[in-house]
Amino acid sequence: MPEIEFRSTMTVELVRSSAHDADVLFAARVSTLGEQTLEANQLDGAATESDLKRDRGLINYLMRDRHGSPFEHNSMTFYVRAPIFVFREFMRHRIASYNEESGRYRELNPVFYVPANDRNLLQVGKPGAYDFLPGSADQTALVQQQTRAAAIHSYEAYQRMLEAGVAREVARIVLPLNIYSSMYVTLNARALMNFLSLRTKRAGTQFPSFPQREIEMCAEQMEEHFRTLMPLTYESFNANGRVAP
């Protein structure tokens, strides 16, 4: 049987992108200038300070007044490796394209998520207003021990069925939600901002969100790529309360 691996991290890699602040500006200005005028006015050199100020102002106007469609003319594809329970939360967002590895067609690798020592364990409060607090050392040890034991037991059962000739699509039914899977996620900036507004917790946001920590770990990495690719859009997103336009 393959060696079972436990980890507490999420993998997010930017595979490819066509996403720039210029995409937003081009899409917005075509409505008033027309395509031919835009093409004639494109600059070959670096943008001036005046250009940057004007571009920042237009993006901020679009974000503030929620003119969202110009933010859709771009694309980012991420490779994500995370536990299956995280993917089920991802797929609640019907604003992206997903392709996930299949347990019907390949034997799943024995890689399982186990919460790190700093993962909050206690849920205190009422629905919609929970606080999540650290557990005791004993609670942390219990969660980690039981998680490992359940994963080992389940994967051994999975292997026994495969060795007996049972189809992969049947054998996989005993595997727990903390087994890692992988997928590609493709979405545009407008969709990503919607995702980030719901799956990150930030002070000062217009509509506070309280995401499960594991999907927030993915969202934080996606946000860093977004910040680098589209700095003016990212700046405006934060300045306007992290509300998707």
Automatic annotation (TrEMBL):
Pfam families, alphabetized: Thy1
Q: Which SUPFAM superfamilies match?
A: Thymidylate synthase-complementing protein Thy1
Which Enzyme Commission number(s) are on file for it? 2.1.1.148
Cofactor(s) this protein cannot do without:
FAD
Q: Which residues of this UniProt protein bind dUMP?
A: E89, F90, M91, R92, E100, E101, S102, G103, R104, R172, R199
* Pathway(s) of this molecule: Pyrimidine metabolism; dTTP biosynthesis
Q: Which reaction does it catalyse?
A: dUMP + (6R)-5,10-methylene-5,6,7,8-tetrahydrofolate + NADPH + H(+) = dTMP + (6S)-5,6,7,8-tetrahydrofolate + NADP(+)
Q: What keyword terms does UniProt attach to this protein?
A: FAD, Flavoprotein, Methyltransferase, NADP, Nucleotide biosynthesis, Transferase
What is one process in the GO biological process aspect for this record?
methylation
Amino-acid positions noted as binding FAD in the UniProt annotation, renumbered to this chain: S69, R92, H93, R94, E100, N188, A189, R190, N194
**InterPro entries, per the entry:** Thymidylate_synthase_ThyX, Thymidylate_synthase_ThyX_sf
Q: Which GO terms describe its molecular function?
A: flavin adenine dinucleotide binding; NADPH binding; thymidylate synthase (FAD) activity; thymidylate synthase activity
Subunit info here reads: Homotetramer.
Question: Which PANTHER family does the entry link to?
Answer: FLAVIN-DEPENDENT THYMIDYLATE SYNTHASE
Q: Which family does it belong to?
A: Belongs to the thymidylate synthase ThyX family.
Protein name from the UniProt record: Flavin-dependent thymidylate synthase
Q: Which organism is it from?
A: Cryobacterium melibiosiphilum
